[in-house]
Design brief:
Nuclear Transport Factor 2, Chain: A; 5 helices; globular
């Protein structure tokens, strides 16, 4: 009987230690479905849910990660087309993973880097892209909102700007 109690105590301590590490890491490790990891964990889960919505072409739900006043203006198919240079219906997102999630010092801005592997159906080519999703909130008690257009925009040099 003592051995069984000792084994259960050791298993409980190991599980508790693992969950503590998963929480401290910002949910970088599997959290067994528990909402661990604080803000970084929440951002990781949000980014994965967003990618699942894009993978299954549910662009209306994918737009819902933006601020309520922007939802109607977000054109997810256009932004995805800019990223992969093919129409969304010619794209099969095969898998994706979160590389990292980080917050700035204020705790009001964040970014989540993802690695996305997709098959271009027109030529059967498989491509891997890295994508950074940017998030913001007005106060620490507010929900996170995505800025997908900022995440996928292509930078163009500004000829009027002086570079030092």
């Amino acid at each position: 009987m003592n051995k069984i109690v000792s084994i259960l105590a050791i298993l409980a301590a190991l599980l508790g230690g693992y969950l503590a590490v998963a929480h401290i890491s910002g949910a970088a490790f599997a959290t067994l479905g528990l909402p661990l990891g604080g803000d970084r964990g929440e951002l990781r889960r949000t980014a994965l849910q967003f990618m699942e919505d894009v993978q299954f072409k549910d662009f209306r739900k994918a737009a819902a990660y933006h601020a309520p006043e922007l939802i109607e203006t977000v054109d997810i198919p256009f932004l995805i087309q800019r990223l992969f240079a093919v129409k969304p219906e010619a794209l099969d997102i095969m898998d994706y993973e979160v590389v990292f999630a980080e917050l700035d010092r204020s705790g009001l801005r964040a970014r989540v880097k993802l690695r996305v592997r997709a098959k271009l159906l027109l030529n059967e080519r498989i491509e891997e892209r890295e994508l950074i999703l940017y998030f913001y909130r007005d106060a620490e008690s507010d929900p996170w909102y995505m800025k997908l257009e900022d995440s996928l925009r292509q930078l163009s040099p500004d000829s009027t700007r002086i570079h030092e």
